[in-house]
Amino acid sequence: MPSLDIDPVAADVAGTLTNGLPADDVVTFVGYAGPGVADKTFRLYTDPWFGEWLELTEDDVVHQLKGSDETGGRSHVWVKSYARVIRSQAATAGEFAAIVDEGDPAATRYPRR
User: Fold this and answer.
1) If you average pLDDT over residues 13-19, what whole number do you get?
2) How far is residue 37's CA from residue 57's CA, in Å, rounded to a whole number?
3) I need a labelling partner for 70 at 20 to 30 A (CA). Which of 10, 57, 94, 110 fits?
4) Is residue 2 part of a domain?
5) CA distance 67 to 55
6) What's the pLDDT tens digit per position in 38-65?
7) Ranges assigned E (strand) in 1-113
8) Is 3 within the bounds of a domain?
9) Residue 65 falls inside a structural domain
10) Which distant-in-sequence residues (6+ apart) come within 8 Å of 63 by Cβ?
11) pTM above 0.70?
């Protein structure tokens, strides 16, 4: 049986990933890390057009593997599973109104003027 070379990234992450938390208490997100709107927050853009993002607090991050050219610039971020995450999407008002109308039975009874 050939010997298996351990990936240095895996060795690094395995040692610091959970930061003392049980593995079930940590989840992973992948995206482009950017500044948040409030202190100690950041955005993790989940699409390459920066139109969808997660807003997270820095205190809830357990580990980050920063993006590189090899990963397409995306970071891997391990977060406490019980952390509060705000998911946002950029769109025009008209696009959002169409989405709301589709899911709202009242929209067909009370059409817009």
Assistant:
1) 58
2) 10
3) 57
4) no
5) 18
6) 999 999 999 988 999 999 999 999 888 8
7) 26-35, 41-45, 52-57, 61-65, 75-80, 86-89
8) no
9) yes
10) 13, 16, 17, 19, 77, 78
11) no
